[in-house]
Each structure stands twice: as structure tokens, then as C-alpha cells.
Amino acid sequence: MSLANKLMDDLKSSMKNKDTIRKNTIIMVRAAIKQKEVDERKTLTDEEILEIISKQLKEKRSAIEEFKKGSREDLVKLTESEMEILLEYLPKQLSEAEVEEIVKATIKEINATSMKDIGLVMKSVMPKVKGRTDGNMVNRVVKRILN
């Protein structure tokens, strides 16, 4: 079953079960998918849909930071619930230890030695972890290892 079909089935079941948060989250994802399909005049692949979901997850993470600054605990909880729903559609997320292993292997591959090589390391690591972790975590791990 394609990811688009799974989203549609989950939308239908969330409407039947009156699960408002899940329904709204899936509608948001489907709207982003539809927008990209209209813009590019093509049907998106599962990989492209995963990119959209990853991007929305990243937006949710930054929104949580803003809500915390504004002391909006209600919005923080809602956004965290939405993030959990989005994570169900992404591949299993990597732990920091797993990211560290990938980064160390990549550093050996490209013979990076200092902070000047951070761009090369990031460029090599990101395709390996695409959709399975956040770029900020990768950046933190790379900086820690190269220092």
C-alpha cells in the first residue's frame, strides 16, 4: 500500500473514530502533498511524501520552541501529539548513538580532521540518514566529534 493510500485510509478511520487531532494532522499532510502535486504537475512518490512529512515534523519542532517561550503549554501538548502522529509515517528514527556511529564512519571515509570539514561531513551524512533523524542532531554530533 502506498503512503498516500495509507494516509487516506487513516484519515477515514480517524473521522469514523472522531479522533480530531489525528484527522487534522493527516489533512494538513495531505494538503501539503496535494499542493506539491499541483505545483509540479505530477503524482508524488512515497519518498517525496516522506520528505514532506519530515519537513512538517521539523516545523513542528521549531513551533514547540516558540510555544514554550510564550508559555503556551496547551499548544505544546497539541503539537507534540501531532508530532507523534507524523512519526508513525516516517521510518524508525535513529538514536543519537546510531547517528554518532554513522558520523564516525563518514568522517573516516572522507578523512575529515577539523571543524573546517563540517560541511563535507554534513553533505555526506545527510543522505545516509534522510528521513530518519533531524539535521540539527546530526550537526550537534558532528561538531562534538570534530572538536
UniProtKB/TrEMBL annotation:
Top-level taxon in the UniProt lineage: Bacteria
One GO MF term: carbon-nitrogen ligase activity, with glutamine as amido-N-donor
UniProt cross-references to InterPro entries, sorted A to Z: Asn/Gln_tRNA_amidoTrase-B-like, GatB_Yqey_C_2, YqeY/Aim41, YqeY/Aim41_N
Alphabetical list of Gene3D superfamilies matching this protein: 1.10.10.410, Uncharacterised protein YqeY/AIM41 PF09424, N-terminal domain
Matching PANTHER family: ALTERED INHERITANCE OF MITOCHONDRIA PROTEIN 41, MITOCHONDRIAL (PTHR28055:SF1)
Protein name in UniProt: GatB/YqeY domain-containing protein
